[in-house]
Design a protein that fits this description.
The protein has about 220 residues and is α+β, with helices and mostly antiparallel strands. It has one domain: Aminopeptidase, CATH 3.40.630.30. The protein is about 30% helix and about 30% strand. It is built from seven helices and nine strands, in the order αβββαααβαββαβαββ. A nine-stranded mixed beta sheet has the order 1-2-3-4-5-6-7-9-8, sandwiched between helices. A hairpin with a 6-residue loop joins strand 5 and strand 6. Helix 1 runs antiparallel to helix 6. The radius of gyration is 17 Å and the shape is globular.
């Protein structure tokens, strides 16, 4: 087990917030862009976390179109309407491929009769953008799999990866109406540092978001 995998394994396995939610943790990789995590997650089943690959394109599109309510999409405004959806996903992958961002999918692993990989589905997507200058988290979980602790796992993982890359702070923005998310972020150690109005022209969505940050000096790694 290399040092990168060992650090991530120990950080997840020993974390008191999530260590009762999973079993059979397996990790491979040498850096954030080759990282793969597999584990049994309570109330969900076997899941795998992998970096965003071009072959994930259509599964991610299906996740956005079929797994998220309009409300969830407003809380996670990564992708626009169907007219420009494919271009937005391609650009998102390009940023990941160029190591400008770090993007991951969480897959629910199924045992299909015809093709296992075909039957698997994305149940969450998250990423760290501007990791070189202003590491900023965004995450979205399919409505069906919310309130099952995946948000905690995602946040802790991305915090550990950011800490691993010697960053001092990590940031995120949360819609003021996303009270569950806001309380989770505070529990993880994020602090509100301001608020601003955002507008999503395509959906005509307008609301206030809270900007939050976490000092990584106290993150155990």
């Amino acid at each position: 087990m290399n040092s990168f995998v060992k650090n991530i394994f120990n950080s997840i396995n020993d974390d008191k917030i999530i260590n009762k939610s999973f079993e059979d943790l397996k990790i491979t990789g040498t850096n954030p862009w080759t990282l793969s995590i597999e584990l049994n997650w309570k109330d969900i089943g076997r899941i795998r976390i992998t970096p965003f690959d071009l072959s994930d394109f259509w599964a991610l599109k299906d996740w956005w179109n079929e797994s998220l309510s309009n409300n969830s999409k407003n809380f996670f405004p990564l992708l626009p309407d169907n007219k420009t959806l494919e271009r937005a996903i391609a650009n998102h992958f390009k940023n990941h491929q160029n190591h400008r961002d770090i993007a991951f999918n969480i897959w629910l692993l199924k045992e299909g009769e015809i093709n296992i990989d075909f039957d698997n589905e994305i149940i969450a997507h998250f990423f760290l953008e501007y990791f070189d200058t202003h590491p900023d988290i965004a995450l979205g979980i399919a409505d069906k799999y919310q309130a099952k602790g995946l948000g905690k796992l995602i946040l802790l993982l991305i915090i550990y990866l950011t800490k691993f890359m010697d960053k001092k702070k990590i940031y995120l923005s949360v819609d003021k109406d996303n009270l569950i998310g806001f309380e989770l972020y505070k529990k993880i150690g994020f602090k509100k540092i301001g608020e601003r109005e955002i507008t999503i022209p395509i959906t005509e969505y307008k609301n206030i978001v809270y900007d939050m940050e976490k000092d990584l000096e106290d993150a155990v790694f």
